[in-house]
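Support request, please re-run this one:
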Amino acid sequence: MLTGLLLLLLAGAGIAGFIKKHIFRIKDPDLQANLKQLKEQGWYQELAEDPRSSWLLASFEEKGPLKDVYYVKQLLENDGSKEGFIRYIREKTQ
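Re-run finished. Output below.
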């Protein structure tokens, strides 16, 4: 019974995604454009120029949170998320 419910939920999510993408023509946000905008931020450039934190940022871009377009948008739009991200990078690189 639980398996059937999970399959039904998965099918519903797939149908909703199809409708969103093909019927309403709503596109997912562009990761590269948002990442470019993030890299133009002064605080990000400061972290990227620091040799202690640049490797961590590169790692995050390859297989970490910076591969998620919604996380990148959160960093751009929310000051609390940005401050937490900066604090995390600084703690990990000291």
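The mean pLDDT is 88. The helical segments are 2-23, 31-39, 42-49, 51-63, 69-77, 79-92.
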